[in-house]
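Task card 7
Instruction: Convert sequence to structure tokens.
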Amino acid sequence: MEIRRSRSGATHLPLSALLSQVLVAFTIEFDNEYERRIRQSDVGSHFLVSLVMWSNFMRFLGDEGLSVRDLSILAGESNRLPHPSLNHMVWWGYVVVEHGPTENGRKPPRLDWIVRPTAAGRKLQEVWRPLLSEIEERWQSRFDAVGIDILRESLQSVVNQLDVEMPHYLPVLGYGMLARAPHRVGPALTGNERGSTAGTHLSALISQALLAFTLEFERESGLSLAISANVVRVLNETGVRVRDLPRLGRVAKPAVSMAVGYLTRRGYVTVEPDPSAKQATVVRLTPKGRGARDAYHRLTSIIEERWRTRFGSATVCNLRDALESMVGDPAESPSPLAAGLAPHRGGWRFSVHLPDGLPHYPMVLHRGGWPDGS
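Output:
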């Protein structure tokens, strides 16, 4: 396949991949700094979680708490009651769910129970709350400040024209790693329901634009954008070793395992012993899989062209140029984004082997919401 190149001369990545890599880089830098600060606190030992748990869950909770129902509604999850992250946040020790006074000795319905942050959850909120602005200030200094302003303006222009209120971060991926559409239109939400920082933080704007792109892609594709971009994209008909997929797709093994299992069950790939190596397996695209790979490249280009018509050619061109300047040429290494990705000594990323690079789509799983599927 011919390599397309952008106006800047860099290898041409889909707009969704550019948005994804910038979002993942921002998230990893945020998460690393959060981990460093939380380990210095007296919060004790708790499960580490990612930015998604602040953006789509904890930011809504005050000390007085919210009902299970209201929390789900504010987070745009009322079509999945209770909130899909609630049980995990209880299990990890960041919130409790309690019922209020009983009537006639009967407990109220579960959806009326109150969700409150624990002491660990309040400490988490205290650490998280200023970090979005702090990381964005770092980016203003690290990258061209004018370019960041152009990025923000372009994203805001896109988000302002969406007819659905998007969450502040991509939701945890559902079955088949499909994104879940928000259920409420924007005009029906009040200022308080939108949250005090709606549309202001860079990560929220990137997420909202990326989710809009994702939903458009998945309405017309037989596969999720997450699986298409991170797994199907790197496969071929001759076979790729399973153990090489995390490196090629830049996502962690649990996400790869889930994706390969899904693809196998639906006939997109076959998994076979590797004839050239003992105890190794290879994944091969079937004709159906080749069609999905081609559809990924074709459909991402089509959607970007649609966006030029829908949101304005200048807006989309400025958005692409700003993103490309931050991502750099994918044929060269390292990316300018790498400057903020080094984990601190003692952090969990410091002690494990991670893919060398960033995924083409965030693999936000239930395992804490890490965007590389960790």
